Every structure is written in C-alpha cells, then in structure tokens.
C-alpha cells in the first residue's frame, strides 16, 4: 500500500507541479505530508530502532568510514555540473529530493524489508532491492523526460544501490547512512549536466556505480561486519 501510494502520489504531484508552472512545488508538499505521516507513526509506536532511525551499531571504521557511499553520492555530477532550474525551483527540487531519500528508504528498506525478514532474510534482501529498482520504471511515464537508455540504466543501478543499502541496514541496524546517501544522490540530480553526457558515458557511469555498490556490499558481507552483534 505504501509503495503504491508513494509511487502514484508523487507521479501525480510531479505532473501537477508542471501544470502550475513551478517544478517540484506540489511534489514538495506531497513529500512533506508523507514524511510527517510515516515518521509520526514510527515515533508514536517507538519503532525508531525497528526501522533504523537510530545510530549504527557498527563503528564507522569497520565500514571504511562509508567512503564508497561518498563516491556514490556524487554520481549525478560525474560528467558535469549545470544550473537547470531557477533558484526557487532548485531549492524546491533539493528539498523534495531530500525527503524522497527518506521516504524511499523507510518504505523499501524499513517497512518492506523489515516485515519480510520475519519469514526469510535472503528473500527480503532480494525483493527489497529489485522492487526498489523496478519502481524507477515509472520515470518513463511520469513526464520526467528520461529516455529509454537512461531509465533502463537507472533501474539496473538502482537495484545495485538498493542491494547495498539493504545490506548496510541489515548489518548496522541503521538507515541513516542509506538515507543520507540516497538524499544526496537525488539532490545532486538537479545539477546534472545531461547535455554533456553521451550514451557511452552513461553506461560507464552506471557500470561504475554497480561495481562500487556490489563491491562494497560484498566487502561488508565477507568481513562478517555486524555478525558479532546478532
């Protein structure tokens, strides 16, 4: 229900924002509403620990000080920096994308993954990762302007990033590293220089992100990080 409400709701909000002539204006309001509702419910039921809104139980040093996440966070400006919107629209865009990072992590890593973990952890990891990636297909139909190649690559590397975020949450018990990285990726997309990126660059960037994501996730798993606190 949350996935459907979120995907459909934000797609409609994006279209309404374009209709009123102010990018992300309605979207920001929708994100704020969903954030308040979800966080209030979590807070009221004392579920901060259950859904990862707490400090990681693993030291930053053991996690390589999250350096791979810092690299991933800058993906949208790897091939250039540009001012694509007015100052007001840029601010609306960044604020809405920060909230999108929070909401998507809470929905896909928090609600979905945590509940599925009760039955089978491996299945929960796969479903959380793949569902998160496939959810980005909506960008082909919501008027975002994404072409088939860009959207296809986004779906693939979103699965890789979703897998990494799920592993980080599962091992550290905290969603904050994932939320911060996710929000940074989204926010920097407003400054992406799409005109300067040719198809081969997009493929190379997506490949690099997948290698970093899967490589970091494998490192965390192989080192047994988090196992000692179970």
Q: List the total number of helices.
A: 8
Q: Which value, in Å, is the CA radius of gyration?
A: 17 Å
Instruction: Please provide the ordered H/E string of secondary-structure elements.
Output: HHHHHHHH
The major pleated sheet works out as: none
Shape: globular
SS-based class: mainly alpha
User: Could you list the spans in which at least 5 consecutive residues all have pLDDT below 50?
Assistant: none
Mean pLDDT: 91
| Residue fraction in strands | under 5%
Give a count of the beta strands, DSSP E runs of length 2 or more. 0
| N- and C-termini, Cα separation | 31 Å
Fraction of helical residues:
55-70%
Question: Would you write up a description of this structure?
Answer:
The structure is a single chain. With 230 residues, the chain is an all-alpha fold. It is 66% helix and 0% strand. The chain contains 8 helices and no strands. It has helices at 2-19, 25-44, 67-73, 87-117, 121-134, 148-172, 176-188, 199-222. Helix 2 runs parallel beside helix 4 (87-117) and helix 5 (121-134) runs antiparallel to helix 6 (148-172). The mean pLDDT is 91.
Keywords:
single chain; 230 residues; mainly alpha; 0% strand
Brief summary:
The chain is mainly alpha-helical. It is 66% helix and 0% strand. The chain is globular, with a radius of gyration of 17 Å.
Strands, helices and their partners?
Elements: H1 2-19, H2 25-44, H3 67-73, H4 87-117, H5 121-134, H6 148-172, H7 176-188, H8 199-222
Helix pairs in contact: 1-2, 2-4, 3-7, 4-5, 4-7, 5-6, 6-8
């Amino acid at each position: 229900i949350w996935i459907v409400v979120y995907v459909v709701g934000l797609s409609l909000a994006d279209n309404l924002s374009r209709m009123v002539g102010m990018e992300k204006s309605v979207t920001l309001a929708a994100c704020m509403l969903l954030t308040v509702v979800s966080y209030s419910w979590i807070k009221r039921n004392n579920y901060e620990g259950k859904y990862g809104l707490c400090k990681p139980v693993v030291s930053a040093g053991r996690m390589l000080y999250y350096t791979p996440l810092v690299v991933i966070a800058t993906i949208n400006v790897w091939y250039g920096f540009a001012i694509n919107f007015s100052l007001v629209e840029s601010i609306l865009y960044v604020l809405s994308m920060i909230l999108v990072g929070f909401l998507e992590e809470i929905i896909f890593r928090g609600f979905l993954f945590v509940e599925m973990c009760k039955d089978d952890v491996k299945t929960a990891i796969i479903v959380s990762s793949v569902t998160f990636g496939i959810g980005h297909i909506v960008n082909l139909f919501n008027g975002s302007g994404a072409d088939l190649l860009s959207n296809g690559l986004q779906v693939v590397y979103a699965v890789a990033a979703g897998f990494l975020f799920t592993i980080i949450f599962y091992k550290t018990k905290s969603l904050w590293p994932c939320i911060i990285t996710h929000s940074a990726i989204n926010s920097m997309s407003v400054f992406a220089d799409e005109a300067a990126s040719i198809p081969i660059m997009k493929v190379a960037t997506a490949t690099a992100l997948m290698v970093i994501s899967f490589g970091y996730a494998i490192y965390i798993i192989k080192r047994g990080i988090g196992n000692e606190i179970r």
